[in-house]
Design goal:
binds flavin-adenine dinucleotide, 460 residues, 7-stranded antiparallel β-sheet, globular, alpha+beta, 5-stranded antiparallel β-sheet
Length: 460
C-alpha cells in the first residue's frame, strides 16, 4: 500500500489532527501490558461510529490490517498490531449516552473508562459489578472484547453477564445493533455474546448497553493467613462451596505479599498464603454473620490468623494492595509473563501445588495471586530476557502451567484472552473441529482477514 495515499484517505475521514505517523506514536502504540511488540504503520483516533465504518471500508478496499485498541492494558497482546497497518485508538469515543435508572441500564460509547462510568453511577447508588483491577484506565470496549472479569466476578459474573446489546462496526464497514433493551431476550442467535470475548477480531464495538445494579449497602473484608498454599486453597474451596456467597475470594502467596508490602509500604503478618474475602449485602448483621462463618471455615483449615477490616478505608487499602500485585511483582525482575490459567473450583488446591512444583522443576520464580474463588489464578513467571537460559526456563514453565490447567479440566485464560501470547497453545484446549468453526465464523464476517489478524489461533 502506498503510505501517503493511505494517510491522505484517512485524513479525509477523521481530519489531520486525528491521524499520526510520528515515530513516537508508532512506538507508544506498539505495545500493551504484555511482552508482545508490533509496530503499526499509522495511528488513527476516530470520533464516531460513521468514521469507524468509513475506515473499515477503506481498509478493505486497500487490504490494510486494522487493530482496535482501548487503553492498551491487555495482558495477552490483543491490541498489538501483529501485521502493522492501522492502529485504531477508540478512547475519544468516550461519551456516556444514557443512564436509564428506570430500567437499570446504561448506554455508553466504547472508549468510556470503567472508573468514569462508575463515578457517574455512584450518586444513584448504582454500579457496574465486573471490576478489572485496571479499572482506572481500561475502557468498556476493551472489557467487552476481552470479556473481562476481576475481583467481584466470583459473585456477579463477567462482562458477558451484564451486556444487553452492542453496536458493532463489522470488518466490511457495515454497522449492526445486537441484543435488546429488555433484561431477557432469546430472539435468535446470541450475536451480542459472539462479539464479547472476540478480542477485536470479529467487529469493532462502538457502543454497549449494560445492565447496572444497586450498590450493596454494606461490604466487609476478611483476611485469613495460612502457613501453606494447600491449606489456603482448601479454605477457599470450603467458603466457595458453602452458602456464604462471597463477593470476592482472592489469594496472594508469600512472594506476592512481600512484594506488595514493599511496593505499598504496608505491613502484613508472616505467612505463606493470604486469602482475602469480601461479603456484601443490605443488612450489616447478615454480612457479619457470614464473616463469622467464613472465619470458622478458615480456622478449620488451620488459618494462623484471621482479621476483619474495621473501616471502609481499611478495606479499600487492602483492595488497593491486592490490585497492585501485578505492578509490585513487575519490580522484581525485568521481564514477566502474566498468566491467568483457570481451573474448576474443586481443583484449586491441586493447581496451587502444581504451580509450586513447576517453579521448582524449572528453577524460576512464579509468585501467584488471583481471583481464586472462581479458580482464576495469576501465576506470574518472572525472568530476565537478557538471560537466554532463564528465558527458556520461563517459557517451559509457562507451557507446563497451561498443560496443568487443561489436565485439571480448566482453560488457558479466565479473563485476559488468548491474543498473541497464548495463540501457540490454543489447540491444547480446543479440538480441530472447534477451531474450524471459529475460523469459518471469522471468515464470514471478515473474508479479507482485515480485522486484528494473527490473534487467537496459530496462523490466524
Ligand atoms: C494492572 C492490570 C490489572 C488487570 N486486572 C484485570 C482484572 O482484574 N480482570 C481482567 O479481566 N483483566 C485485567 N487486566 C487486563 C486488561 O486490563 C483488561 O483486559 C481490559 O479490559 C482491557 O481494556 P483496554 O481498554 O485496556 O483494552 P486494550 O488492552 O486496548 O484491548 C484489549 C482487546 O480489546 C480489543 N478492543 C479494544 N477496544 C475495542 C473495541 N472498541 N472493539 C473491539 N475490540 C476492541 C483490542 O483489539 C484487544 O484485543 C489487567 C491489566 C493490568 C495491566
Amino acid at each position: 500500500v502506498n503510505a501517503s495515499e493511505l494517510k491522505k484517505r484517512l485524513v479525509q475521514i477523521v481530519g489531520a489532527e486525528n491521524v499520526s505517523t510520528e515515530s513516537v506514536d508508532l512506538l507508544c502504540y506498539s505495545r500493551d501490558a504484555s511482552e508482545n511488540v508490533g509496530k503499526p504503520d499509522i495511528v488513527v483516533w476516530p470520533n464516531n461510529t460513521s468514521q469507524v465504518s468509513e475506515i473499515m471500508k477503506l481498509a478493505n478496499e486497500l487490504r490494510v490490517p486494522v487493530t482496535p485498541r482501548g487503553a492498551g492494558t491487555c495482558l495477552s497482546g490483543g491490541p498489538v498490531p501483529a501485521r502493522g497497518g492501522i492502529l485504531l485508538v477508540m478512547t475519544r469515543m468516550n461519551k456516556i449516552l444514557e443512564v436509564d435508572i428506570a430500567n437499570l441500564q446504561v448506554l455508553v460509547e466504547c472508549g468510556v473508562v470503567w472508573q468514569d462510568l462508575n463515578n457517574e453511577l455512584m450518586p444513584y447508588k448504582l454500579f457496574l459489578p465486573p471490576d478489572p483491577a485496571s479499572k482506572d484506565a481500561c475502557t468498556i470496549g476493551g472489557c467487552m472484547a476481552e470479556c473481562s472479569g476481576g475481583i467481584r466476578a466470583v459473585k456477579y459474573g463477567t462482562f458477558r453477564d451484564w451486556t444487553l446489546g452492542l453496536q458493532v462496526v463489522l470488518p466490511n464497514g457495515e454497522v449492526i445493533e445486537t441484543g435488546a433493551k429488555t433484561r431477557k431476550g432469546v430472539s435468535g442467535y446470541d450475536l451480542t455474546r459472539l462479539f464479547i470475548g472476540s478480542e477485536g477480531t470479529l467487529g469493532i464495538i462502538t457502543r454497549a448497553r449494560l445492565r447496572i445494579f444497586p450498590l450493596p449497602r454494606h461490604r466487609l473484608v476478611m483476611s485469613a493467613y495460612f502457613d501453606s498454599m494447600e491449606s489456603a486453597g482448601k479454605a477457599i474451596f470450603r467458603v466457595m462451596t458453602s452458602d456464604l456467597i462471597p463477593s470476592a475470594a482472592e489469594l496472594m502467596d508469600k512472594q506476592t505479599v512481600e512484594a506488595v508490602s514493599k511496593f505499598m509500604k504496608m505491613e502484613f503478618p508472616e505467612c505463606i498464603a493470604l486469602a482475602i474475602f469480601e461479603f456484601d449485602g443490605s443488612s450489616l448483621g447478615e454480612v457479619k454473620r457470614r464473616i463469622r462463618q467464613a472465619r470458622k471455615l478458615c480456622e478449620r483449615e488451620k488459618a494462623t490468623r484471621v482479621d476483619v477490616s474495621e473501616t471502609v478505608e481499611e478495606s479499600d487499602r487492602l483492595w488497593q494492595a491486592r490490585k497492585s500485585a501485578g505492578p509490585a511483582l513487575a519490580t522484581l525482575k525485568p521481564s514477566s509473563l502474566h498468566e491467568d490459567a483457570t481451573v474448576p473450583t474443586s481443583r484449586i488446591p491441586e493447581m496451587l501445588t502444581r504451580i509450586e512444583q513447576i517453579a521448582q522443576k524449572h528453577n524460576v520464580l512464579i509468585p501467584t495471586f488471583g481471583h481464586v474463588g472462581d479458580g482464576n489464578l495469576h501465576p506470574i513467571i518472572l525472568y530476565d530476557e537478557r538471560n537466554p537460559d532463564e528465558k527458556k526456563r520461563a517459557e517451559a514453565a509457562t507451557t507446563d502451567i497451561f498443560r496443568a490447567a487443561i489436565e485439571l479440566g480448566g482453560t488457558l485464560s479466565g479473563e485476559h484472552g488468548i491474543g498473541l501470547s497464548k495463540a501457540p497453545f490454543f489447540s491444547m484446549e480446543h479440538s480441530t473441529q472447534e477451531i474450524e468453526i471459529m475460523r469459518k465464523i471469522k471468515n464470514v464476517l471478515d473474508p479479507n482477514n482485515i480485522l486484528n489478524p494473527g490473534k487467537i489461533w496459530a496462523g490466524a
